[in-house]
Design a protein that fits this description.
Order of helices and strands: HHHHHHHHHHHHHHEEHHHHHHEE
Oligomer: single chain
Number of helices: 20
Largest sheet: 2 strands, antiparallel
Distance between the termini: 79 Å
Number of strands: 4
Strand order of the largest sheet: 1-2
Helix content: 40-55%
Shape: elongated
């Protein structure tokens, strides 16, 4: 088997082929692959042609149930794929995971192969609800999406979680795919099973370019959805501006994702997102009820600065608890954010619904840090209801 592979790689003449390759027509390697699988994977056009002409079975599958066409499509060997199709290879055969050659071509961003396969395949074959267009929206570029749409792929077909290809493209930051799908008429407000629209998905993942394309395509800013932010049985209703910094997934985002969320935040603010709106049904939830409070709760100083710079009021109380932004920063131990809020004139004597001042909520272990923060400030005026602070 190995000797035959070396002969194929060397570009054999007909005599060498007949002597070393043809006698091993039924031989298998450790993966259960034939020499036809090997030639297709390596893009050996002449070897594939010789084997087809001499009786090698086109749809023989290896132990992963992949045929030679699967391997040629995955590797982007368009000429080999064309020879296999012309010889009668089945373009809709599925491997052990349910993937067809078209699926693998989309996952590998093989635009030429997708253009070849799409008109010949069942475009609606799905794996966990994901069709070829979903996979292109996740892994490929706009050219692959265009080829699938031109071949008749359904724009609004949902996957197993109710997500359309546009939703998947937005989540994965494929702004070019988002634009291509919108240009072909994809519904910008199509929700998944949880009610999230593509704009929510883009903001949650910090995909600023996708968010901007969606806004240009008519995505609505204030559409609320249900998102579980805690173990509470109640689910607050959040608009797209909230996932730009919240912990919807339960974990704080990494630096790159957070930078993207701040860009999304800027795009949403520019488009007119409400900075002081509250979410109905959120008053009994442990999640904060104002966007500024959500940014603090999520631990995102850049988002806090962006909201304050856009005009968010640090003194606006939460309808649920009466807490101000400084209360939230102190309760969550965010010294860095508390400093930002204090520079905006936040009052240290403001009380929440239970009569507590912000620094009353500081955990004992963090009191030295907050005391050091206060030591850096000095009062310049102290009327009965106002305490103005500046940093020295």
């Amino acid at each position: 088997m190995e000797e035959a592979k070396k002969v194929l790689l060397s570009g054999p003449d007909e005599e060498s082929f007949m002597r070393f390759v043809l006698p091993r027509i039924h031989s298998l390697d450790k993966s259960g692959s034939t020499l036809l699988h090997f030639a297709a994977q390596e893009g050996l056009v002449n070897g594939v042609r010789f084997m087809i002409e001499n009786g090698f079975l086109l749809d023989d599958a290896n132990r992963s149930f992949r045929t030679a066409l699967h391997l040629a499509a995955m590797k982007g060997h368009k000429d080999v794929a064309a020879i296999l199709l012309a010889g009668g290879a089945n373009p809709d055969v599925q491997d052990q995971c349910g993937f067809t050659p078209l699926h693998l071509a989309c996952q590998s961003n093989r635009g030429d192969v997708v253009s070849l396969l799409a008109p010949r395949c069942n475009l609606e074959t799905a794996v966990d609800g994901q069709r070829a267009l979903h996979m292109a929206a996740q892994f490929a570029d706009a050219a692959v999406v265009e080829a699938l749409v031109a071949a008749g792929a359904q724009l609004e077909a949902p996957d197993g979680a109710g997500r359309t290809p546009l939703w998947v493209a937005a989540w994965n930051g494929k702004a070019d795919c988002v634009k291509a799908l919108l240009d072909h008429g994809a519904v910008v407000e199509a929700p998944d099973q949880g009610g999230w629209r593509a704009l929510h998905a883009a903001c949650d993942q910090g995909q600023a370019a996708s968010a901007r394309v969606l806004l240009q395509g008519g995505a609505r800013i204030e559409v609320p959805v249900r998102v579980r932010l805690s173990t509470s049985p109640r689910c607050p209703r959040l608009t797209p501006i909230w996932p730009s910094w919240g912990r919807a997934g339960g974990y704080p985002p990494g630096p790159r994702r957070m930078a993207g969320r701040v860009e999304c935040l800027a795009a949403l603010i520019q488009a007119g997102a409400a900075l002081g709106g509250t979410a109905p049904e959120q008053q009994q939830s442990p999640a904060p009820s104002l966007p500024l409070h959500a940014a603090i709760w999520g631990g995102h100083p850049a988002a806090v600065a962006a909201l304050l710079g856009a005009g968010a009021d640090p003194e606006a109380p939460s309808p649920a608890s009466g807490a101000t932004a400084l209360h939230v920063a102190c309760a969550w131990g965010r010294v860095d954010i508390a400093q930002v809020i204090l520079t905006r004139g936040a009052r240290t004597e403001a009380t929440d619904g239970l009569g507590r001042r912000p620094f009353d909520l500081v955990a004992p272990v963090q009191r030295p840090q907050f005391e050091a923060l206060l030591a850096k400030t000095r009062s310049i005026c102290h009327p009965p209801l106002t305490l103005c602070l500046i940093f020295t």
